[in-house]
Amino acid sequence: MKKCFLILMLVSFIFAGTIGCATSAAPQISEVKQMLNQAWENGADVKASLEYYSAKSYLVSAEDEQAEYDFEAAKVFAAKALENAKKALEKSK
Amino acid sequence: MELTGKFEEEKVMMKNTTIRGFTVAAVVVAVALIFSGCAGQLMGQLDADKAKFAELSKQRNDYCPEGDRLYAEAQALLDQASHEIIDEGNEKAQAANLLARAEADMAAAARTYAECKPPKRYHAPIAAFSMPSEAIEGEVVTIDGSASSDEDNDPLTYAWNLGDGTVSSSNIVKHIFTKGTYKVTLKVSDILYSSEPVSKEIVVKEKQLEVIKLEPLNNVNFAYDRSELTPEAKQILDNNIAAIKSHPDYSVVVIGHTDSRGTVEYNLKLSDRRAASVKKYYVEKGGIASSLIEAIGKGKGEPIASNETNEGRAKNRRVETELHLIKK
Questions:
Q1: What confidence tens digit (pLDDT) does each residue in B257-282 have?
Q2: Fewer Cβ atoms within 10 A, N terminus or C terminus of chain B?
Q3: Which residues of B touch A76 (CB under 8 A)?
Q4: Are residues A54 and B72, on separate chains, in Cβ contact within 8 Å?
């Protein structure tokens, strides 16, 4: 019984270590999505196509990494997406 | 005997374990070598793709959203592949897949950018203007840039350099040059582009006047300190009116003079009044357009006789009428 408990603890530690104490990039991804919707309504896909599609592409990368529980990488890509989404929004106003 | 047998058995077991250990180690080393070879290969591919992307960025333009979509996707895929290869050394298959997709996007983006034509609103305007090639100094020269055009009908802004240090932003410029040769240049711009500059030369010649002096009013025509016309004066001016009318291309200049008595300021005013009085007569009696006549008072500065005698001073109190024609 005691052995089982120890194994369980060990597995938990390994799992936590693998995922890290990192938190999900979901809030950033959600923010980018909202911003991109607004940018699209402003016509950013034509007026600021490079920034708009850069944001969209990095968003896909962020979602990929998020799905693989690589939250740090997801956050890096989400930050790039956010930066481009802001530019697209500004340029398409 | 039994002990010897057991010893031999353990020896064989140890030997087998050692062999197994070596085998496992060899396999691990081989796998590691294979993977590191793969990783090196992927790294090389990543570098090559980054170089391709740098080339593609030179081909990018501002009017091709579909090209931008592929371009941006390739960039993100390359970044993601770079992350997999460098940060996550164990994601080889995924990295290879990302690189393959990035390469396909880059190839498609290159094709798309090449096929994209600039939209109509990106035409540059064309500058054009009219201007005389010769002028006389002091003459107002009209330089007209209204013939400039833009295929997209965008509003134009004008940038003139008149060659004498003058710049302007009007579509039509009126300017007086001094004697010399000037290169006038116009450049027009719409919201995005500027035209090629267009230049023309103008040669400005020295002003040459043909002057006809009509009969002046003098000694008998003005009393001391007065500007009213005497009957004799009117008789002379009537003759002058006939002469003015027979020279319709000429402008009229009426110049008043005084004798030396009084201050400079006083005499300037008096000569002004006398010239104005003659001009008024020409306009009212002769029906000559006021705009054709310039009346100037010169005071006591240009005497034609001595101011020491009554006779001389009377001669100096005079009004001259000149007909001017600018020769081209």
A1: 988 988 999 999 989 988 998 999 99
A2: N
A3: 83
A4: yes
Q: Do A53 and B87 touch (CB under 8 A)?
A: no
Determine the 3-state secondary structure of B293 from DSSP.
strand
**How far, in Å, CA of B307 to CA of B318, rounded?**
13
The pTM assigned to this predicted structure is 0.43
Interchain contact B113–A (C-beta under 8 A)? no
Q: In terms of CA atoms, which chain A residue is nearest residue B81? A: A61
Task: Kindly report, residue by residue over B150-186, the tens digit of the pLDDT.
Answer: 988 889 999 999 999 999 999 999 999 999 999 999 9
DSSP structure string for B145-182? -TT-B-TT----EEEEE-SSS-EE-SSEEEEEPPSEEE
Q: In sequence order, what are the beta bridge partners of B295?
A: B254
Q: What mean pLDDT is predicted for residues B81-93?
A: 81
For the residues B10-37, what does the mean pLDDT come to? Answer: 58
Whether B60 and chain A come into contact, CB under 8 Å, resolves to yes
Measure the CA–CA gap between B176 and B291, rounded to whole angstroms.
Answer: 20
Angle between helical axes of A49-67 and A26-41 (0-180°, round to 10):
150
Residues of chain A in contact with residue B87, where contact means CB-CB under 8 angstroms, are 73
List the beta strands (DSSP E) in chain B: 134-136, 140-144, 157-161, 167-168, 172-176, 180-189, 198-205, 208-213, 251-257, 293-297, 318-327
| Residue environment code for B213-224, b if the CB has 16+ CB neighbours within 10 A, otherwise e | ebebbbbebbee
Residue from A36, A53, A69, A77 whose CB has the most chain B CBs within 10 Å, to mutate: A53
Fill in the DSSP letter of residue B85: I
